[in-house]
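Researcher: I'm preparing a figure for a lab meeting and need a structural model of a single chain. I don't have an experimental structure, so a prediction will have to do for now. The sequence is pasted below. Please return the structure as tokens so I can convert it later.
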Amino acid sequence: MSNGIEKKTVIDHVAGFDIRPGRYLINGAFKVPGGINFTIHSVHAVGCELVLFHPMEKQPFAIIPFPETYRIGNTYSMIVYGINIKDIEYCYRILESSPSGKIVKSPYLIDIYTRAVTGQSKWGEKSRNDFTYRSRVVVEDFDWGNFEEPKLDFQDLVIYEAHVRGFTKNENSGVSAPGTFQGLIEKIPYLKSLGVNCVELMPVFEFDELESVRDVNGKRVLNYWGYNTVSFFAPNTSYASVLEHNHEGKELKSMIKALNENGIEVIFDVVFNHTAEGNEDGPTFSFKGYDSNIYYMMTPEGKYYNFSGCGNTLNCNHPVVRQMILDCLRYWVVEYRVDGFRFDLASILGRAEDGSPMESPPLLESLAYDPILSKVKLIAEAWDAGGLYQVGRFPSWKRWAEWNGRYRDEIRRFLKSDAGVAELAYLRITGSEDLYNPNFRGKNASVNFITCHDGFTLNDLYSYNYKHNESNGWENTDGANDNNSWNCGEEGPTENKEIRKLRRRMQKNAFAVLLCSRGAAMFLSGDEFSNSQDGNNNAYCHDDEISWLDWDDFKKNKDLFNFVKKCIAFRKRHPVIRGRMPASKVGLPAYSAHNLTPWNDRFTDQTREVGILFTGYSEKNKTDDIVFLAMNMHWEEREFILPTVPGKHEWELTISTDEEAKLNKMKETISLIGRSVAILVAKRY
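Model: Understood. Here is the structure written out token by token.
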């Protein structure tokens, strides 16, 4: 070292470039003094070539073979001098020996650890005719300043699930850069006014929205949602409002920083169950070319297992793949300060190489105990497309939480007055301790939700009995059939005032119950102002008004927005409805059932009126926190006799979806019209 500059020791001169062995322990490509370090590994390779392109050029300007002496084990590493990161894009070619002994070269492959992918930076357009993905070197120089994460307790989360593009793409969103990270930044005041404290973003890793692009009745449909990963370490460049040449990810980092500075955590929806390479008929641009039978689950016949429903399945518990996933998540936490991850079809992450479920999957255990990931939220979608359903029994090590699919299904059924589900609804609202024993799962296990990207919006949940996915081009055969929805008397939009009034009350009921349920709460963006997808419950392919939020609905439905805002604020004021607290001073249990009459915990198939009392002691406020949730899902009016709280307390009606709810403080009763909810607080006097 001299004056802080590394002395260049040239060992070899290959293909017109000065090169030397690189830094084997650091994967990917990164800038070093005077050049660039390239590190890649492959088990089955007999050789490897570095392929260099000038930006946007069709043909490479250099192909540099890695000398055999530059290989340690299965890892190739090389520093190439005299090249500038601004002037290059790069790929690799893997050389393998065929059964006949002939050396076969792979197609151009992106770097598995690349921090940026070129070739599709403008949404919906391929940037060159001979389209191939290429990698780019990124400078990690973002200034986080005096950055500090919100570090919210899991049970305190109010999660807002959103699609980056769809959130602001509509021309009525009122942002300067619709459909981008910048557009989301401009909506932070809106999110703060609503009161959410966490945003869960649908995939933001580089994906191929043009995969399976089709024409349906003259309209282009594509892979809009993004569950089609091209690169796990690279942000989706088409979500940036400006071209970030060699600084890809800067706008995403700015968005995360801005959200965190406003008390809003960021969770990424990550897709480690499959990739955009598809099955044996799909393209080869990454894992297939390096070590297909290591990165993917393969049948004995050499085909691809398909537990993802998308053609291939990542072999997550192979040590090489496991290390890659761990490296990936660490990278996003260290360089992007991500607060948590939701794992799509997470049951796949617990399958062995032959596809069988594992009791203690090494990958899940590694993520649970990793020191870098120790404070981030880990949330599993605890099922997969191969039929493995693990809600309530996903391996956890007291670290993993779950999307509570049973909460969604059973609360939906209860809210539309189905028979025989009242007791299940009671269990879900009070924390699903029948599924998540606190002694074994900890207190941070359940993410409660009624709607998400996959299925009906809340508006459509109470406007349609059946899915209406004809515009997807599959003759309405795609999407779930078991939606537990109810159109309230008429399918689709209606001018009937009574039906419209009932639908609005049903939406408010859903929010009131969700936000009074123990565990983290999550809802789909736009539900707070009655956004609709016209009855489409699988809008994965729609980059249009079906999927884009219509911000005119926000203006039309301010009453619903204000109601949701009020419920969120109430939840924040009352920790007793978020999770267990120290025992109340008045000696009441943490939660109890009072179905129409005090201490009535009898449930029958015909029970549709449920009262729940939550109690606990707030150390912060030095007082008991006592909340009563009254839910009348019968279609006729019912009177609840409220439980008497010891000491000088009286009930106060705080929130109700029945605008004419009748609280009689003297008799300690409240009358609610059919299909309505009320929230009361016991106040000392």
